[in-house]
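Please fill in the sequence for the structure shown.

STRUCTURE ENCODING:
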């Protein structure tokens, strides 16, 4: 067995901790690089909270933990919550090039942001094309009614 003084064992523990920190930070960088190379990303920033969804003529607003529409739509609170959840969990393919002709325009107001984020949506078969900040994304396996109430379409 190795005989070390108390000071020697402290040094061993310090170097072991430094090695573990180095190991974890390196593996984290490797994992993040693999994640960046994946073909999909969230449409909204991670951990963002939607305060309002503005469709121009109608608006869905967060009221406490619930939702309401102005003017009133023929939808209950759970359906409004589903629309907000679809926006928050939307996963899109990496950006493409192009422009949308005659899209639906939706402005999302996120907590902590002074200005709304404008999204343009256009259905294309079973998918939706989404344009945001001059980037065009493909949103698969969703219908337009998941993001825009049918009464507004």
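FILLED IN BY: designer on duty
SEQUENCE:
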């Amino acid at each position: 067995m190795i005989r070390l003084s108390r000071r020697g064992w402290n040094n061993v523990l310090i170097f072991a901790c430094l090695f573990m920190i180095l190991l974890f930070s390196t593996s984290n960088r490797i994992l993040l690089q693999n994640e960046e190379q994946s073909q999909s990303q969230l449409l909204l920033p991670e951990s963002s909270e939607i305060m309002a969804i503005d469709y121009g003529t109608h608006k869905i607003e967060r009221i406490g933990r619930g939702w309401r529409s102005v003017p009133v739509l023929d939808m209950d609170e759970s359906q409004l919550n589903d629309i907000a959840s679809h926006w928050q969990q939307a996963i899109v393919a990496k950006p493409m090039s192009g422009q949308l002709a005659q899209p639906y325009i939706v402005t999302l107001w996120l907590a902590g942001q002074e200005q709304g984020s404008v999204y343009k949506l256009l259905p294309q078969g079973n998918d939706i094309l989404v344009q945001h900040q001059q980037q065009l994304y493909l949103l698969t396996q969703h219908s337009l009614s998941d993001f825009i109430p049918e009464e507004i379409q």
